[in-house]
């Protein structure tokens, strides 16, 4: 079935960017509201955030520059950066700032990445120590150019953190390691992060346009395999809404995640980082997020975070504590 390119990976407007795809969608009989909905541009009030001006923000930025570390907070143009960095919570992005893929929703630059920085694991550990982090989130760009997709660098970062700040709990948000050996994920699991996160990002129907380099079921299987390899590791995954998905498609993703035994679901509003990225099809209201959260809880997730500004690493430390407590209650009731 032909797909209406809801968003487009080009910055074309007018006929090329909006009218022609709408016409094709109409001619192809694709009359579902989400497919012919015009793109939204003006952000509603519930999305507005304060400009980052605090001393804590400036100090966090200076530290990251000094240690030559990239952050997804900056690279992905996260709307929460003012709040998080004021509290000195930053999500470090390892393996450089250049990704080998070009997803239609993501602001991280695409190209041929530089060689892996051998100092990076210790620099991440130094940053965690200086920031006094009780919980750290580490993510990376996709490194399809590396034989193990960058898995060994995740392992080195976890080992450096365990050496330097043993009480810091570790959450990793990894790529899908598509077309890499299963040993890549096995090595990371053996290093025993506290939380293993990998985002499904969107519903399977939108993968060809939004996440063309990835495969929905491969991502799901990755999370399932982590849980099978080590059931004590918490698994976590997230999706963005507002890309043109339908309510029942989201419910199906929740069911798929539960069948893969994923503990924690995050859901947030997709925001278009630049005009050349996928357009926002809809701003989902806070009440609709609450309804999604209630449904997800009923489906059995240990924890659900679903608000317009929820991101994978938003309030990750507090959520980790809540997830641990929820598991203890669950085990006591078993
Ligand atoms: S929500 Fe995550 S990515 Fe965004 S600023 Fe906070 S820590 Fe960084």
Give start-end ranges of low-pLDDT stretches. 1-37
Report the portion of residues in β strands: 5-15%
Figure out the total of helices: 13
Secondary-structure content class: alpha/beta
Give Rg in angstroms.
20 Å
Average pLDDT, rounded to a whole number, is 88
User: Which ligands are bound?
Assistant: iron/sulfur cluster
Order of helices and strands: HHHEHHEEEHEHEHEHHEHEHEH
Say how many strands there are: 10
User: What spatial form do the alpha-carbon principal axes imply?
Assistant: globular
Distance between the termini: 46 Å
Strand order of the largest sheet: 1-2-5-6-7-8-9-10
* Fraction in helix: 40-55%
Please summarize the sheet with the most strands.
Answer: 8 strands, mixed
């Amino acid at each position: 079935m032909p797909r209406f390119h809801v968003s487009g990976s080009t910055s074309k407007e007018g006929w090329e960017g909006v009218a022609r795809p709408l016409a094709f969608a109409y001619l192809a009989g694709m009359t579902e509201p989400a497919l012919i909905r015009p793109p939204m541009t003006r952000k509603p009030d519930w999305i507005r955030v304060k400009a980052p001006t605090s001393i804590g923000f400036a100090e966090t930025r200076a530290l990251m520059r000094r240690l030559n570390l990239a952050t997804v907070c900056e690279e992905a143009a996260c709307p929460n950066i003012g709040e998080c960095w004021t509290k000195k919570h930053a999500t470090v992005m390892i393996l450089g700032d250049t990704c080998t893929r070009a997803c239609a929703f993501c602001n991280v630059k695409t190209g041929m990445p530089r060689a892996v920085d051998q100092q990076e694991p210790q620099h991440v550990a130094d940053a965690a120590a200086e920031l006094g982090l009780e919980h750290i989130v580490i993510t990376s760009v996709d490194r399809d150019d590396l034989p193990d997709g960058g898995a060994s660098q995740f392992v080195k970062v976890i080992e450096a953190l365990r050496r330097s700040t043993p009480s810091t709990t570790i959450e990793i948000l990894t790529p899908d390691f598509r077309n890499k050996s299963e040993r890549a994920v096995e090595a990371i699991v053996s290093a025993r992060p506290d939380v293993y996160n990998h985002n499904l990002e969107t519903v399977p129907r939108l993968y060809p346009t939004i996440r063309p380099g990835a495969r929905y079921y491969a991502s799901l299987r990755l999370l399932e395999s982590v849980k099978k390899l080590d059931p004590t590791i918490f698994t976590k995954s997230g999706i963005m809404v507002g890309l043109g998905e339908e309510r029942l498609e989201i419910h199906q993703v929740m069911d798929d995640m539960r069948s893969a035994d994923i503990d924690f679901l995050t859901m947030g509003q997709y925001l278009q980082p630049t005009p050349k990225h996928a357009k926002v099809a809809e701003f989902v209201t806070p009440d609709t997020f609450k309804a999604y959260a209630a449904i997800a809880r009923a489906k059995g997730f240990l924890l659900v975070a679903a608000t317009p500004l929820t991101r994978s690493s938003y309030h990750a430390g507090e959520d980790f504590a809540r997830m641990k407590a929820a598991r203890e209650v669950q085990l006591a009731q078993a």
